[in-house]
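A.,

Following up on our hallway conversation. Structure tokens first:
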């Protein structure tokens, strides 16, 4: 049987060898903890604590500020020092709850449950209460995603185990070390729908994860592991849905419109923790990697801790690295400061000795067509970038520029080194902003 894939895509250096064989190591935080109130798509959470309050690990400190929002819990015990704006990894500022960690990690009492004793509404409520969001970076509240308008039309729950972004290995280690909890989290999600089947998609450069997950679902008739061809962006939502089910979606559709719901591996793990163990989302795995750290690895990190501690955990820096990236090299973003907190969507810290991209000079387009061949949305990136540079919104939309998924494949493969993705992304933001004004 052939490997599942999609048309288009590119093959960047994957960089997985830096950390893929490094077991998850628990990393205890030091110093103050910072919890931004916007760690998710939607309305910011609303504080339910005040300065001077003593809180326990696992205690609710901010509640969802609307239907599309998420609860936030303290990951440590300690005293609320302030509620004030703090800088995020993106460079912006966000109102945040600052807690002085007392180092005792006193926890609230959790209420474990078995799946059989919970109704569908109770399952969704436990996921909502735990503040579970998409852990792949998007941060969409999971209880909302698991409450589609037509639940009877959901055919597939797809677990994104592709981890196609170069260098990242946190999902891989989760599947290797805690596969039972990943499978159970998927079973919890499947219990919410009448006839949905589970699919775990894993790229073929992760044979050990494929073997382990296939063994774990061997006696699960409603779950199968599908082997994906290793190619970027195989883990992109649209690409993954097409590769595993043959169904297509566009920018005007949600995955649920094609009968699918897609979850990241760590999201499914968090569903298990919330529903079965009754624990809120207060920790996550972060890959710290690249040639700019001495000991790359995967760390189980308390949310709210400072990024600088991740560098220390990885043995410190090698020389004076030129670039720090939150996330991977294709869709991550460069950081100008490490004095920022780890949040729910913090999957990786990539440290590079050389900032190759910033030193590249773009030249004229040579009309080679490689950007079109690599585009997973089958667009003409060079043409779209031309419209963007001229501010031509009508031409941009006519040639389907809003269908771009901003994966970076075109910029990566362009021999003229033109910043195609950046230009297209900027134009998309402009068009969306103008649409909101109307």
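Then the amino acids I'd put at each of the 438 positions:
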């Amino acid at each position: 049987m052939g490997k599942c894939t999609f048309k288009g895509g590119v093959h960047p250096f994957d960089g997985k060898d830096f950390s893929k064989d490094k077991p998850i190591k628990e990393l205890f935080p030091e110093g103050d903890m910072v919890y931004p109130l916007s760690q998710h798509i939607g309305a910011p959470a609303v504080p339910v604590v005040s300065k001077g309050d003593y809180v326990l690990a696992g205690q609710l400190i901010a509640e969802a500020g609307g239907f599309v929002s998420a609860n936030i819990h303290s990951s440590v015990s300690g005293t609320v020092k302030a509620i004030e704006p703090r800088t995020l990894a993106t460079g912006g500022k966000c109102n945040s709850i600052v807690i002085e960690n007392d180092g005792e990690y006193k926890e609230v009492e959790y209420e474990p449950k078995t799946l059989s004793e919970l109704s569908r509404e109770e399952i969704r409520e436990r996921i909502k209460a735990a503040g579970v969001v998409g852990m792949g970076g998007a941060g969409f509240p999971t209880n909302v995603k698991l409450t589609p308008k037509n639940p009877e039309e959901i055919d597939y729950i797809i677990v994104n185990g592709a981890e196609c972004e170069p260098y990242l290995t946190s999902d891989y280690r989760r599947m290797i070390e805690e596969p039972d909890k990943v499978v159970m989290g998927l079973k919890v999600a499947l219990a919410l729908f009448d006839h949905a089947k589970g699919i775990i998609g894993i790229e073929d450069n992760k044979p050990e994860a494929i073997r382990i997950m296939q063994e774990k679902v061997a006696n699960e008739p409603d779950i199968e592991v599908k082997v994906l061809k290793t190619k970027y962006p195989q883990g992109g939502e649209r690409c993954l849905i097409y590769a595993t089910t043959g169904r297509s979606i566009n920018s005007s559709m949600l995955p649920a419109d094609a009968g699918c719901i897609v979850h990241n591996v760590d999201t499914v793990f968090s569903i298990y923790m919330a529903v079965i163990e009754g624990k809120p989302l207060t920790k996550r795995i972060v890959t710290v990697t690249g040639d700019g750290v001495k000991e790359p690895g995967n760390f189980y990190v308390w949310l709210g801790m400072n990024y600088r501690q991740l560098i220390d955990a990885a043995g410190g820096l090698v020389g004076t690295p030129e670039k720090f990236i939150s996330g991977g090299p294709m869709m991550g973003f460069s950081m100008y400061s490490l004095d920022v907190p780890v949040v729910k969507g913090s999957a990786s810290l990539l440290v590079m000795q050389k900032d190759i991209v910033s030193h590249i000079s773009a030249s004229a387009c040579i009309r080679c067509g490689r950007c079109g061949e690599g585009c997973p949305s089958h667009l003409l990136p060079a043409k779209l970038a031309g419209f963007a540079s001229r501010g031509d919104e009508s031409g941009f939309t006519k040639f389907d520029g809003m269908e771009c998924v901003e994966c970076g494949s075109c910029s990566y493969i362009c021999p003229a080194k033109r910043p195609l993705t950046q230009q297209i992304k900027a134009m998309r933001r402009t068009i969306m902003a103008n649409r909101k004004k109307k």
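Residues 185 and 272 are 4 Å apart (CA to CA). Curious whether your intuition agrees with the design.

B.
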